[in-house]
Design goal:
This protein is α/β, with parallel strands linked by helices. The chain is 42% helix and 11% strand. It has 13 helices and 8 strands. It has helices at 7-21, 25-41, 55-65, 102-110, 118-128, 145-155, 173-186, 219-228, 245-250, 254-263, 280-289, 305-310, 317-324; strands at residues 76-80, 135-138, 166-169, 195-198, 214-217, 239-243, 270-275, 294-298. The radius of gyration is 20 Å and the shape is globular. The two termini are 39 Å apart. Residues 62-63, 66-69, 111, 113, 116-117, 120, 141-147, 276 line the site of adenosine-5'-triphosphate (ATP).
């Protein structure tokens, strides 16, 4: 019976609702600024504004407003569910120490990254370890999570194989596009790596086969392409990445869709989940998808307001309200 559900259509409808509220990253930023100005001119604070933001919108707003890396002085915590796991989690202070493909390293430097961020220092060696390890990573917005998992995903691509090997699930169209743009920049000197977006507006025909190695998409569209159109084989994936697990579970239908995709993976597929927070529900979800994980977390510090202020954007009730959306997290 569940086979009859048109997941892509369902996801597209959810996306449309979000899109109507948040037309594009740029216009969202512009609208925020205009609203801020007009409310400030009226002597009103956004705290009084009746409009409510979803978790996805609040996360998107944070992303839009933040432009640089956020410093963290907090300690990294590493936990392991499986005490027999052979991996000794170490940390690196340079990208060279990761022994990356030279063209990938060139891409990292081209992005202006000189050294790994705090979370990257520990997460990257674990993400790149052999045999591959499953990981759950938590750290706050702007600490370099996206760059870390993109580097790991790109490192795992075998360019001699022309089929999808790495799948990154994003909770929304906007996040998928942003992730793809960062991946394309990092892979700038690796032209053999090809990226395909599985998001609204992208279509495939039944009977065709995807040749791109990296797929970045929203769960409904991915499910449709993999199971209904069968344009790629989930069993052949070597990496399954779940981005923004907290937003994923807060978005209707995504949790089920992720689980359905996950069920089709090969047991040897490396699975990773990244998120700003993991409350109990989110952690339960992550643990279903990520067996025997190494859990790497960076304790929350003084969140975004200071950092956003450093970017020269005024703290407003709008931002404060977005921060208030955060649910109590396990770490
Ligand atoms: N090692 C690094 N050195 C310098 N800048 C970095 C580094 N890693 C990431 N950045 C930059 O810092 C910013 C935040 O990084 P990134 O988007 O990876 O963080 P994030 O934790 O995923 O944030 P969010 O949760 O909001 O998506 C980006 O502008 C990114 O280009």
């Amino acid at each position: 019976m569940s086979q009859k559900i048109d997941w892509a259509k369902f996801a597209d409808e959810q996306e449309k609702v979000l899109h109507q509220k948040v037309p594009t990253l740029e216009s969202f930023n512009m609208i925020s600024q205009i609203n801020i100005q007009s409310n400030e001119a009226n002597g009103k604070d956004f705290e009084d504004a009746p409009e409510q933001f979803s978790v996805a919108e609040a996360t998107l707003l944070r992303k839009v407003l933040r432009k640089g890396l956020m410093d963290s002085k907090n300690d990294i915590k590493v936990q392991r569910d499986n005490p027999n796991s052979p991996l000794r989690v170490c940390s690196v202070k340079t990208f060279e120490a990761l022994h990356l493909n030279p063209n990938l390293l060139k891409g990292v430097y081209d992005m202006g990254f000189n050294a790994p961020s705090k979370i990257q220092e520990t997460a990257l060696p674990a993400l790149l370890a052999n045999p591959p390890q499953n990981l759950i990573v938590q750290s706050q917005s702007g600490t370099g999570k996206t760059a870390a998992f993109i580097l790991a995903m790109l490192s795992r691509v075998d360019v001699s194989k022309k089929y999808p090997q790495v799948l990154c699930l994003s909770p929304t169209y906007e996040v998928a596009i942003e992730t793809g743009e960062v991946a394309a920049h990092m892979a700038k000197f690796c032209p053999e790596i090809e990226i395909k977006y599985a998001v609204r507006g992208e279509e495939v025909s039944r009977g065709s086969r995807l040749t791109e190695q990296l797929i970045i998409g929203t769960p409904g569209k991915v499910l449709d392409w993999a199971l209904k159109f069968q344009v790629f084989d989930l069993k052949k994936l070597t990496v399954f990445m779940l981005d923004e697990a907290d937003v994923m579970i807060a978005t209707s239908g995504h949790q089920d869709q992720c689980i359905r995709i996950h069920k089709k993976l090969s047991p040897s597929c490396q699975v990773m989940s990244f998120s700003i927070t993991y409350d109990l529900k989110c952690m339960e979800f992550a643990e279903v998808l990520v067996p025997d994980p190494i859990i790497i977390s960076l304790k929350k510090g003084e969140e975004s307001l200071d950092n956003i202020q450093r970017q020269g954007i005024p703290p407003t009730g709008l931002l404060k309200r977005c921060q208030k959306k955060a649910t109590p997290s396990l770490f």
